[in-house]
Structures are given as C-alpha cells and as structure tokens.
Amino acid sequence: MPPLGVGVVGASPDRGWALDAHLPAVAGLAEYRLAAVATTRPETARRAAEVFGAAAAYTDPAALAADPAVDLVVVCVKVPAHAEVVERALRAGKHVYCEWPLGLTTAEAERLAALAGERGVRHAVGLQARSSPLLATLRAALADGLLGTVLSCTAYSPTGSGGPHRDLARRYTADRANAAHTLTINTGHTLDTLGWLLGPLDCFDARVAVRQPAATVTETGEELAVTAPDQVVVSATTGDGCVVSVHAHSGARPNGTHFAARFHGTRGDLVLRSTGVRGLQIEDLSARFCPAGSTRWRAVRTDPRHYRVPEPLRAQPVLNVAQALRRLAVAIRGGTRFEPDFGTAVALHRRLDAVERAAATGRRQCAGARTGGTPGPGGNRGPGGTSGTGGSSGPRDLSDPAGVAGAA
User: Fold this and answer.
1) What's the helix, strand, coil split of the chain in %, to 5?
2) pLDDT of 191-227, one tens digit each?
3) C-beta separation of 270 from 179 below 8 A
4) 283 and 144, same structural domain?
5) Is residue 388 part of a domain?
6) Count of structural domains within the chain
7) Locations of Gly residues compositional bias (predicted)?
8) Cβ neighbours of residue 346 under 8 Å, at least 6 residues apart?
9) Residues 187/136, Cβ–Cβ less than 8 Å
10) 106-119 and 82-91 helices cross at what angle (nearest 10)?
11) Whole domain around residue 147: which residue ranges?
C-alpha cells in the first residue's frame, strides 16, 4: 500500500512544534511521505521543502490542502489560525490532524467537529499524552486493579512557557483571547490525561488567576500587559468518586520543578513524574508503585506491547506524536474512528469552559453532555485510544515479566 501524503502547515525550518515532533515522526514512519509544507513566507516555505524533502512548498494553506498529493493535513500554526486552516483542509476533503486547542472557542471547535463529520474524513487532535506507551501501561494497570479503588489523585503541572519573559514568537500568548496559555494548554492536557486514566472529569471547582500581569519581550525589551492566566487550581471527582486536584502554572524554572502526580488507592500508591517543564504530554515520564503495607517503591516498566513505532522514534518529543500518527494511518486506511478526535476536543473545550465558570462564580460547574472521548477505568470503555484490557481483575503480579513494575 503506498504511503499517505502529508502536508504540514506551520513547517518552519527554524523552530516550532512541527520541527520538533511532527516532521521527524513523518520522516520515520513508513505509512507516510512528506508531500508538502506551508509557512507564511515564500523563502521559509522553499527552505523547509529543501530541508525536509517535501515535493511542494506553499504560503497558502488552501493551496496545500488542494494539492492532490496531500491526503492528510497536519496543522501546527498558532491557535488563532487553527480554525481557518482546519476548515480549508476539511472542505478540500482531506484528513486532518490539528494541534490542541482545536479552536479559539468551544463554538469554533463544535463547528469544526460538525464539518469533519459531514465530510466523512478522519480527524485527530493533538492530545498526544493518550499515545504515551507508559501512560497506556498505567491505564491498563489501573483498570486491572493495581491500586484497587483509586481514592484520590493530586497533580502538580508546571510549564516553562509564560512567566515574566517571553520571546517574540511567544508574544501572542500574553493575550488571554489567543487561547494559548496555562488554562487552555497546560491545564487542558492535564485534565484530559487524568480523565483518560481515571474516568471523565466533568464537574469542577476552580480558581484561575493572573499573578504576573506584565512581561518583557526578550529580544526587544517591550513591556507587555498580560491577561492570560498563569495560575489554575482545579478540583473534581470522577464518576466513581475519585477526588482529583490539579495545580497548573506557567513560568516554571528548569530547577527540577517538574510535573508530578500521586495516585492513592486501597491497594497502594503510584507516583508519576516528568523530566522537564514542557508538559506531561511532551516530556519523558517515569512512574513508581508502592503496594499498601510496604515501604518499598518499585519502578514501573512500560509494557512493550504499547510501542507502535520503530526504535529511532522512541524518544521525546517525537514519541507520542509518532504513536498518534501511526494509529491515525490505521484509521485512515481502515475507515475507522481515531481517538482523540475533534469530538474529544469539543468535550475538553466544554470542560475548560466549566472550569472558567467555576472560577468566575465561585460555584461548582459541570460541562454538560459529553462529546467524544474514551472514559478511563472509572467508567465504561469506548473504542479507540491506546488502552489495555478493561475490567478489574485484581492487582497485577509484579513478579511477572509482563507486569508493570520492577525493583527500583
């Protein structure tokens, strides 16, 4: 079967998420070939095509989407441009992978999800933590009863972006209206991941604050007014009563202040950590488990069955994106649903709306009816995702080589 042609919009040859993750993933997967790239300027588009080996270079995303050699459009532009680029690709009848957030608002996301459904194409959103082999291992282990009943989860989720200094490329993130800040991105990824692991989180108490209302542009010294939130605290419960709390903030320093989550259950405790400040969806993760009644922590091993990509792609920040793209190729060729898709994105947009309402009113708020997404072990499983077996068959035998943990 011939490889699928990929067109990447936002394929800067100098910096950005496409350069860091999507382009290496496409180059390393046999299911794809890079057919076209697009940037905002002719010279960078031509250079990107030369550097990455694309057959065509564009400055107009609509022209890229109209290229008959392009089967899948990958959208890696700034959030305010997502909706326009995605809509053009959908109207051209192309499959779409769009980075999170899907739109500036829930209404934009709902409109794009409806259009994608009408066009009958496969659609994916970049909630790539769901493609992490380690997180898939943990999800399956939790479903199998590793912790028994999960009573609570406490997550600390800092990110290095934002803060009092921003470079020109990140200048736009100071404006809350541009939807590229701690609430939408960092909190969004964290809530989605925890909901995928534990079960949907739909009702929230929250505090959202702007604690650093000014920032300096690194290259120019320009002073910026910051309206984007930099501190978010959320509490929620899953359908079966697990109590979840999240503190997300921007401006984290590279001093070991990384993502950490502790899961407390009737049969033991689990700790999940990242190695950097770019977010749990991007950084390398590690996990440790301590059975109830013991003081000995054991390192969790990733189940090798959850790796879907060749060895050269098994390093972050490429790994999770490559895993997602590999599954997306299967969905495109088989005509099956991919998850997380635009329906999943709409559900997360609605959850973040509920968080904002809770913070504004001081009262608990719920997201309403769910659209898309696959519940975690606390609820009923749906199709798709990178999950293991469902049910609750009791704790895994940690002495088994196929189990989740080994001695630390």
Assistant:
1) 35, 25, 40
2) 999 999 999 999 999 999 999 999 999 999 999 999 9
3) no
4) yes
5) no
6) 2
7) 370-393
8) 102, 106, 109, 110, 113, 371, 372
9) no
10) 10
11) 130-306+343-366
Rounded Cα gap, residues 75 and 57, in angstroms = 15
Question: Which two tokens mark 366?
Answer: 């719920």
Give yes or no: residues 236 and 358 share one domain.
Answer: yes
236 belongs to a structural domain: yes
Q: Say if residue 97 is in the same domain as residue 158.
A: no
Query: What pairing do the DSSP bridges indicate for beta strands 231-237 and 203-209?
Result: antiparallel
- Of residues 28, 396, 373, 47, the one with CA closest to residue 202: 373
Model's pTM, two decimal places? 0.90
Instruction: Give the CA radius of gyration of the chain.
Output: 21
- How big is the chain, counted in residues? 408
What is the CATH number for 194?
3.30.360.10
The closest alpha carbon to 51, from 28, 69, 30, 34, belongs to: 34
206: left (phi over 0), alpha (psi -120 to 50) or beta: beta
Confidence band of 254 (pLDDT split at 50, 70, 90): confident
**CATH code, domain carrying 112:** 3.40.50.720
DSSP bridge pairs for 37: 8, 57
Q: Are residues 85 and 161 in the same domain?
A: no
On the question of a cis peptide bond just before residue 317, with omega within 30 degrees of 0, the verdict is yes
